[in-house]
Amino acid sequence: MMELTDRHYRYLMRRLTRCTVLYTEMLTTAAVLNGDKEYLLGKDAGDNPVVLQLGGSDPIALAEAASIGEAWRYDAINLNVGCPSDRVKSGRFGACLMAEPELVGNCVQAMQAAVNIPVTVKCRLGIDREDSYEALSSFVNTVASKGCRHFIVHARKAWLDGLSPKENRTIPPLRYEYVYRLKEEFPSLKIDINGGIVSLDETTEHLRHVDGVMIGREAYYNPSCLLQADSLVYGQTGPHNQGHERSETAMLADVARDFAQYMQSQYESGVRINAMSRHLVALYQSIPGARLWRRHLSEHASGAQDAIELVDTALSYVFDANQSVTERRYAP
Ligand SMILES: Cc1cc2nc3c(=O)[nH]c(=O)nc-3n(C[C@H](O)[C@H](O)[C@H](O)COP(=O)(O)O)c2cc1C
Questions:
Q1: How far apart are CA 307 and CA 294, in angstroms?
Q2: Could you tell me the pTM of the whole model?
Q3: What is the span of the domain harbouring residue 39?
Q4: Residue 264: inside a domain, yes or no?
Q5: Are the C-beta atoms of residues 22 and 47 closer than 8 Å to each other?
């Protein structure tokens, strides 16, 4: 998600879940080809699996950008055919490409020819009045015929004229049944569902019908929703599970302290602390002290030089509010 899922956010998420596939922000082909590659594509060694999402519609440029993504060790390259913003439309990429399935197919074909990792497509149900199931099925069929085996479908259409990008994430109704039907019609394709999914319970329910679930806003604005993803969805042990029963508050404190160490080392190589700590603000929700946690991080991160002190002080508000002696036992 643009402005949100940068490398620092992804580092944080890896403290919560080892198995969940993470996505970059959408990067345009021009940015990947001409921009500062370390800044745009650089990632932590423990990030994977991570998918690089590209925006563009020129098969040659996309192929080149995909190949750069592979060299930077991304696990897959995703083509954005779902973003409805005007800026994206004028650049002829994003959701408006749903009207040009042949072109999308050509892009995927060129990208797939350039790399040995999967090339996937993220799309909407449709755009404007072209929103029937048949139109979606025809789009997927055309793009699949050029080699795309994996689609992530945001289960609502986009209105390109008249709605803002934000409205396009809420106003058009969710139609999960279209995505389920797609999986029934194309059983050999990998079909993931996206849109309005906010819990692991909902995730496991969707997984009865489709191959994968993408969680967007909830994973950013309530990252702890993924705390149990490794165990509940993948049947694996999470990074914070140390073999004994621990409260969620204590596990999140470990995540926060680990991230504080990371922030400090990044700060020492020139990254502002508040450019990273913003991702931590929503870690605690709906528990005593969460408001003070958020306030402390928001008010003291700007100009901060000691990330460990910043986070420790914010954590002390959470612990004090919970008056939890048990949790303090786990503090170093
Ligand atoms: C601030 C913001 C930025 C986003 N940027 C992207 C993006 O770069 N690429 C993309 O495919 N979707 C992007 N999205 C859309 C989300 O990936 C997702 O499809 C949408 O929010 C619906 O899923 P959700 O209800 O789980 O959030 C963005 C959403 C938000 C809120």
A1: 15
A2: 0.94
A3: 7-234
A4: yes
A5: yes
